[in-house]
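FW: tagging you since you asked about this chain on Friday. Here's the raw sequence from the shared folder, copied in full. Didn't touch anything.
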Amino acid sequence: MLFLLRLGVFIVMLVWTLDRFINPEHAARVFEHFYLLSNISPGVLKIVGGLELLIIFAFVAGYQKTMPVAVLPGVVEYRATIVIVRGDGDHQLFAQPPL
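HL: got it, structure written out here
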């Protein structure tokens, strides 16, 4: 049952990760809007996508089960801090259940 949960999360994350390779312009807009990182080159997005692939494959395989659990909340907290500081009223993140 836990593997099926990991597999479902893997599929969702894989779609987001492939976006960095297939449509780097969209990925750059996502980084600019959600993480306040502008002017990201396609090469940097491919490096980020490659690192994400390594993490999500490790996650679905069950390798170092605590590693992805330690990394993902940090990304969520970074995003939450940007939402609070920017004050754009985009509070969709807070509707998510805790990891």
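FW: The chain has a mean pLDDT of 77.
HL: agreed, and Residues 2-95 form one domain.
FW: great, closing this out.
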